[in-house]
Amino acid sequence: MNDSLLVEARDLERSYHNGREQIRVLHGASLELRRGEAVAVIGPSGSGKSTLLNLLNGLLPPESGELRLFGRAHTELTESDWAEMRRTRIATLFQDGNLIPTLTVSRNIAFRAGLAGVHRHDGDALLERLGIAETAQRYPDQLSGGQRQRAALACAFAMQPELILADEPTGSLDYATAQRVAPLFFDAIRERSLGALIVTHNPELAQRCDRILELRDGALSPWVSAQFS
Fold first, then answer.
1. What's the CATH code of the domain at 134?
2. pTM of the shown model
3. What is the C-alpha separation between 66 and 8, in angstroms, rounded?
4. Which of 8, 60, 163, 187 matches a 20 to 30 Å C-alpha distance to 210?
5. How far is CA 153 from CA 91, 97, 125, 130, 211, in A?
6. Range of the domain at 209
7. What confidence category does residue 107 fall into, taking pLDDT thresholds of 50, 70 and 90?
8. Contact yes or no for 87/115 (Cβ under 8 A)
9. What does the alpha-carbon distance between residue 75 and residue 202 come to, in Å, rounded to a whole number?
10. Is the dihedral of CA 78, 81, 87, 91 positive or negative?
11. Does the residue 2 lie in any domain?
């Protein structure tokens, strides 16, 4: 495997059950993601975008197909292996921020970085760049939704991951803030040679990525439509 290739997925399948009905969410989904590359995934609500993220971070196993992360096949990875990768190599950004409510923003950053073995982090500088330096000593319930989302971004970058999986990373931001934060997000991806898979309904965010894939009918394909779902 090429050292620059972080994710390689071939023909991933995943379904879930609604009572006795089996609903196929992913059907033959394939993608590749390299270091320094940002790939957007768009598609209708319920098309399987969140399921795809959960396959890539090991929270769900594929029912069939091939998945390799950092050169290792998913069939070779134990639960402990996945937990270690989520701790040190994969940062998942959820829409709600997923901050620890009993820790200040500053301590959330230090805790997340420390879990990854990073004891000298740039959390204060990240908060400054993201425009929320004043929140460092606040708790998550004292923040707006947009501030929590930016604090979560700071936590993710402070851990110095190799792969970021982001679910609507600017979804809680107002337009002006999103316009200011998005370039910082992509600059950090390229400066640090990370790979990023970004699930979004935001056309401007998607168009900042290197590639856009559309998830529809369970499969991924290059986006060619002029309209977002």
1. 3.40.50.300
2. 0.91
3. 8
4. 60
5. 9, 8, 12, 9, 21
6. 37-60+78-222
7. very high
8. yes
9. 34
10. negative
11. no
Q: What is the pLDDT of residues 3-46, one digit of tens each?
A: 789 999 999 999 988 888 888 899 999 999 999 999 999 998 88
Strand order in the sheet with 5-18: 21-34, 5-18, 64-69, 72-73
Q: What is the pLDDT of residues 188-214, one digit of tens each?
A: 888 889 999 999 988 889 999 999 999
Strands 163-167 and 5-18: unpaired
User: How far, in whole angstroms, is CA 15 from its chain's centroid?
Assistant: 21
The three-state DSSP-derived secondary structure of the chain is CCCCEEEEEEEEEEEEEECCEEEEEEEEEEEEEECCCEEEEECCCCCCHHHHHHHHCCCCCCCEEEEEECCEEHHHCCHHHHHHHHHHCEEEECCCCCCCCCCCHHHHHHHHHHHCCCCCCCHHHHHHHCCCHHHCCCCHHHCCHHHHHHHHHHHHHHCCCCEEEEECCCCCCCHHHHHHHHHHHHHHHHHCCCEEEEECCCHHHHHCCCEEEEEECCEEEECCCCCCC
| Encoded amino acid at 190, one letter | R
Rounded to 5 degrees, φ, ψ at 82 are -65, -45
Residue 11 belongs to some domain of the structure: no
Task: Report the candidate in 181, 159, 163 with the shortest Cα–Cα distance to residue 172.
Answer: 181
Chain centroid to Cα 220, Å, comes to 17
Number of folded domains that form the chain: 1
Domain membership of residue 53 (yes or no) is: yes
Q: Partners of 216 in the beta sheet?
A: 219
Token pair listed for 201? 């309904």
